[in-house]
Design a protein that fits this description.
With 680 residues, the chain is an alpha+beta fold. It is 41% helix and 16% strand. It has a five-stranded antiparallel sheet with strand order 18-17-16-19-22. Strands 3-2-1-13 form a four-stranded parallel sheet. A four-stranded antiparallel sheet has the order 5-4-9-10, with no helix packed on it. β1, α1 and β2 form a beta-alpha-beta unit.
Amino acid sequence: MNKEKIIVTAALPYANGPIHLGHLAGAYLPADIYVRYKRLNGDDVLFVCGSDEHGVPITITADKEKVKPQTIIDRFHNINKDSFEKFGMSFDIYSRTSLPIHHETAKEFFLEFHKKDLLKEKKSMQFYDAKANMFLPDRYVEGTCPNCGSDNARSDECENCGALYESNQLKNPKSKISGETPILKETSHYYFPLGDFQKRLENYIQEMDEKYEWKENVLQYCRGWFKEGLQDRAITRDLDWGVSVPLDGAKGKVLYVWFEAVLGYISALKDYSIKMDKPDLWKKYWQDPDTKYVAFIGKDNVVFHTIVFPAILMAWNDGKKDKFCLPQNVPANEFLNFEGKKFSKSRGWGIDVIDFVTQFPADSLRYSLTCNLPEMRDSDFQWKEFQARHNNELADILGNLVNRTFTFAFKNFEGKVPAIYTLNSLDSQMLKFSEDSTQKVGELIEKYKFKDSLLEIMNLARSANKYFNDSEPWKTFKSDKEQCSTTINICLQTIYTLAELIQPFLPNSSQKIFSMLNEKETVWSDAGKINLTEGKELNKPQILFQKIEDETIERMVKMLGHVETDEKKEEKQLISIEDFQKVEIKTALIIEAEKIPKSERLLKLKVDLGDHKRQIIAGIAKHYQPDDLINKKVLIVANLKPAKLMGMESEGMVLAVENQNGKLSVIEIDPEINLGVRAK
């Protein structure tokens, strides 16, 4: 296999607070697993990240604490850098967007676009706080979203529904500085013509998807943006914190953080090159057409990495000999919740990474999060589940295999690797399973299916435990010592393979196992083979995973006890009977069902409502075979606006419920009820 040159980036965490478990599951852990695997394969990988240190939230925090923004970013840059190190992230560079090299890079892009007459200078109306005597950046204004009616919308974006709009469209605006109603006042800004790049972006994403199979959730976000139509977006703001606009007459204006932050991936690699005393090293990665660029992010950053950043790079590349590479893949994850609710700093709901890793081993957290990664849908972290995975899987399966094998080897084979003699069918099956597992795990990681790859590894550990039990070495040591020797040798060889396979996921545990084997860390291609030589001395075993006691978990749960109950802290969003009556839920018969090519999640259904038939695209392919749905009488939302999924129109939604294991079941109704009847 040809070795690859790869840039891997993980979303730049915002230096306005400590990172929590949701951040890890969204972008950082998947990126680290991928990078560690690629390095074991011998690929040339540079893993890039750093703090995003400009923008309004930082100034808001600084205002509240009555300190300078630099104080805030220094504090959280160091906290997050320390958190990542303790968690086991293997960044090559963890840079900062406040560094001069980043400011220079961002200004260089702006000036290049200005020189090309690409930017459009427009006058617009922006909220102005007369009492505070300042223009109000987006996060300093809150009001009612013009799209969904949420009361916590910002002046340009609604976090509730994701809508983007102009400031003058926000309803009931209030200044977060003074609490007064701001006025709209004319100001001038530079705009990037994002809409001019829509067709190129659509073609680019289609090409990347055809070649590298982008995740369906990422494609859906992109299609939604394209359907709405890309518009010119302002890239400057009236603010005194950020990268200053490098033009005469632009005093008091900075580059909008959505424009300059993504350029932090480039400036970070420049920073790395300077630290390595190789100033042009970054060009050999960013401007090499053979470089593979993979961007790991959470779903809230999809638009910036699939649309905004590629458009910026396309604009720079036009007419250039040395072109920047565009993302080959953007394997974004959904959100991780905490004990059934969203992480919330203001409500004290959740746990920061730095606090977690002072209480528990980083590998236990890495394991639990990987098993529960929100790869296609939101998932949930539960303390009890974390404990169960640590105790029942890491300790009782992987840890037990290592402990029992080493203990037996020291008791009966002088702490050395015993010989392999004639193989019986059980022996051969175990060796074959180990070899096949190595291939499967690698293929799954290449496809960014990290949950499935870890499941394969644990299946190998389970099989090795079963092999140990079925081979009964405690009996064969007395009756057939050669067979006993072979059994323990194969168990040790399998443990060697497991040490290699878990390295991207559980790096500390992997090192411990290799140390017990008296071996140095190896390369991926060695896994699944006979690697340990007869007579090799082993090091004394150590317990890999100490059990986590109930009292410890109960203490962690009680730490959340200060959080007010849902009834007191979170007002339930109740709807009126009139709101409910707007939704038409009707009975329908599924008469056709088929899989949609290139989609693991979607099925194309044709349903009969009695007086007419319609097509519905339903996300239930992982839960039903098409033939299982034929002639089921179900409930559908009949007055949903048509939407396009995978290029096909969907005219409604099939209602389903989800159990605690994530299994979807369509809601079936009495076969005697007529079609097209409305539910009440």
